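Q: what sequence does this backbone want?
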């Protein structure tokens, strides 16, 4: 059997894990909102039309923050369309997704949903077709206690209490030509700076995310970050990163190596932020908001057909990737990567939450079920809270088409508030188990461990409404320990959560 070691020292911490790294994202796109979280008339719908079965699955994920309302959608969105009496709200053409937005679900409804789903809103303002004025007005409407036109309008619309939205995105992917009103880095930096200034004048307690480049592969990447930060470094708190992966060539080993790309991406953006910090002689360090990440490719072709058929439709089934087992392995590895970078990545949003590239799927008038990728997200969110430890791992390596030296065993560790130690591990070797020896230094003697393993013979196995448990973790019985090193077999092609108590 192959061998790997992990050395953990209680004093070697990467840093506290910000719970917001287990965030998610709901965009007005396809069936994410309409037919996803919201379906009046559904047997489980509450008085506001929100599906309680979906809320149940979301609560299980324990998502501290949910980005909303886009995404590309936000670059053409008037936030004012989404308030006031529903029957008076305008229907608009959404040029991001070529659909019709009815605004049946708006700001008040979303805030209500957040409360039920036990999550906090992360609200994006439109810096595509709108600008500084709309951005500062949105903050006043949402957060000002009262006594001004917009805060009183909020009260008139049903919420005397301010929404208290703490986290705001300054537009979305503004270097992408697919964005309405896309900008040069200099233009974006200037408008982001002015919007940020005014938004914080309205509510100094808010935190702001500036748009990094929409992808590591964009020709604009790098120079975009440098130039826009030159304009807005002092006014913002985080820089965004977005990244999606796909196994388009059906090369699973190469696909599973994408976590290495994510790690490089994080380090590169952090370096750019630090170089701007140097240039500005600033005391402030910018942290990162990885506010879109996931696997996305299964639905690409189907979407073209849907658009041919249903352009300008409402809630058309766009970007509905059906995730398989190997996708869950990569998602596990990406979560491990985020934990390894907990000192810098403070916010991360799996994109998205329901139906649209999502861990949760629904059928209209039917059931709601967990896709394969739901499980690593849920387990990391539940057990990956506390302090991320610097896990020194030695693993067999493999080469794939574009990355050399990929660790077969991708693993990290978290120490919880109760002192319990959790190890997350993905074995990317498709054919062989790996014997992992965990060398523990400076910990009290652990008495036992439990493990939960997600594996499947078929890399392409999926969960469906009729068979929702095809791919799900299996919990093992507790194993006694004698207080020394721990030896665990990590099965081939598996995601594992090992908890020492
Ligand atoms: O998550 C789907 C889309 O991907 C988002 O709207 C956009 O920001 C990104 O390109």
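A:
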């Amino acid at each position: 059997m192959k061998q790997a070691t992990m050395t953990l020292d209680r004093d070697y911490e990467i840093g506290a894990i910000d719970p917001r790294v287990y965030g998610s994202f709901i965009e007005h796109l396809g069936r994410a909102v309409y037919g996803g979280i919201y379906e009046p008339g559904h047997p489980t719908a509450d008085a506001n039309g929100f599906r309680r079965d979906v809320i149940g699955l979301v609560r299980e994920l324990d998502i501290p923050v949910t980005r909303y309302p886009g995404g590309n959608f936000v670059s053409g969105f008037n936030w004012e369309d989404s308030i006031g009496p529903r029957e008076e709200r305008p229907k608009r053409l959404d040029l991001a997704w070529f659909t019709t937005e009815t605004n049946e679900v708006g700001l008040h409804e979303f805030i209500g949903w957040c409360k039920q789903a036990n999550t906090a809103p992360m609200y994006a303002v439109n810096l595509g077709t709108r600008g500084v004025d709309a951005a500062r007005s949105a903050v006043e409407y949402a957060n000002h206690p009262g006594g001004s036109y917009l805060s009183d309008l909020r009260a008139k619309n049903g919420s005397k209490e301010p929404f208290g939205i703490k986290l705001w995105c300054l537009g979305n992917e503004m270097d992408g030509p697919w964005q309405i009103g896309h900008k040069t880095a200099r233009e974006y930096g200037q408008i982001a700076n002015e919007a940020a200034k005014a938004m914080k004048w309205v509510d100094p307690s808010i935190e702001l995310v500036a748009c990094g480049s929409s992808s590591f592969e964009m020709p604009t990447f790098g120079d975009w970050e440098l130039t826009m930060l030159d304009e807005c470094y002092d006014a913002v708190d985080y820089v965004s990163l977005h990244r999606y992966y796909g196994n388009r060539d059906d090369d699973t080993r190469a696909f599973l190596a994408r976590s290495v790309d994510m790690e490089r991406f994080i380090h590169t953006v952090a370096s750019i932020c630090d170089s701007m910090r140097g240039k500005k002689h600033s005391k402030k360090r910018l942290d990162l908001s990885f506010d879109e990440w996931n696997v996305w490719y299964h639905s690409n072709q189907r979407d073209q057909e849907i658009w041919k058929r249903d352009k300008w439709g409402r809630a058309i089934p766009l970007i509905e990737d059906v995730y398989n087992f190997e996708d869950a392995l990569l998602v596990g590895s990406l979560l491990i990567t985020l934990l390894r970078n907990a000192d810098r990545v403070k916010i991360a949003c799996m994109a998205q939450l329901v139906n649209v590239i999502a861990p949760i799927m629904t059928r209209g008038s039917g059931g709601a079920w967990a896709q394969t990728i739901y499980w690593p997200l849920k387990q990391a969110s539940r057990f990956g809270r506390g302090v991320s430890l610097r896990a020194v791992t030695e693993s067999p390596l493999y080469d794939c088409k574009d990355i050399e030296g990929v660790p077969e065993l991708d693993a990290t560790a978290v120490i919880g508030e109760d002192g319990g130690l959790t190890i997350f591990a993905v074995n990317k070797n498709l054919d062989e188990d790996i014997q992992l020896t965990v060398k523990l230094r400076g910990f009290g003697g652990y008495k036992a461990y439990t493990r939960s393993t997600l594996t499947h013979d078929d890399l392409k196995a999926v969960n469906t409404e009729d068979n929702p448990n095809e791919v799900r973790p299996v919990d093992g019985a507790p194993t006694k320990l004698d207080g020394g090193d721990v030896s665990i077999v990590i099965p081939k092609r598996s995601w594992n959560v090992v908890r020492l108590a």
